[in-house]
Specification:
- By secondary structure, this protein is an alpha/beta fold.
- The chain is 25% helix and 30% strand.
- The chain has 5 helices and 12 strands.
- The strands form 3 sheets. Strands 2-1-3-4-12-11-10 form a 7-stranded mixed β-sheet, sandwiched between helices. Strands 5-6-9 form a 3-stranded mixed β-sheet. It has a two-stranded antiparallel ribbon with strand order 7-8.
- Helix 1 links the parallel strand 1 and strand 2.
- The longest helix has 12 residues.
- The termini are close together.
- The model has no long low-confidence stretch (mean pLDDT 89).
Length: 194
């Protein structure tokens, strides 16, 4: 299995390191022709408008959408915004996943925080299912999920921070910045099944 990480902008190198830690080959994807080489794609955190603008400038938008119709995509932080159908503002979006997101919902960089999350879906990866230590940096909030999407994790106050719709996965937080590879293992299982 080969999982690509969209390497137009953002923290793609950290995802490659996490993929390698679980024995999955990861490659940086910067051009549409590389999509044929991969089985799944991670869209990393960074700046969602910049990622969208560069994907548009490089002529990748339609190719990324076609890829997502057949294979798994996981968006983390800015990647979750880019994967969504609605970010409540005009910017380039893939529009694949039926979620509405609010950018920078938790505030500025100084308002970044870490929290332990209960993620029942990770029990398939870790039978003990310890709480997941999530890192939020200028994170989006998943305001709502459509009928075909399901919530994977919420903050204690009920705000949604992870969701899945078939082969598409989004997290508001940054699993690549932790030593916990369970979300990367979970996504690799999603890719294997699609």
């Amino acid at each position: 299995m080969i999982i690509g990480v969209l390497a137009l902008q953002g923290d793609f190198a950290e995802h490659i390191t996490m993929l390698e830690s679980i024995g999955v080959q990861g490659i940086e994807v910067r051009q549409s022709n590389q999509l044929a080489q991969i089985d799944g794609l991670i869209i990393p955190g960074g700046e969602s408008t910049t990622i969208g603008k560069l994907a548009t400038d490089f002529g990748m938008m339609d190719d990324l959408r076609r890829f997502g119709q057949e294979k798994g995509i996981w968006g983390t932080c800015a990647g979750a915004i880019f994967l969504s159908k609605d970010a409540r503002r005009k910017q380039p979006l893939l529009g694949l996943m039926d979620i509405q997101v609010e950018r920078n919902a938790f505030g500025r960089q100084v308002d970044s925080f870490e929290v332990e999350l209960d993620v029942p879906a990770l029990q398939a990866i870790d039978p003990e299912n310890q709480p997941y230590h999530a890192i939020f940096i200028r994170a989006p909030l998943i305001e709502s999920v459509g009928a075909e999407a399901r919530i994977l994790a919420s903050l204690p106050d009920g705000r949604i921070v992870a969701a899945q719709q078939g082969r598409w996965l989004v997290t508001s937080f940054h699993p690549e910045l932790t030593g916990d590879n369970r979300f990367h293992r979970y996504f690799s299982n999603v890719v294997s099944a699609s």
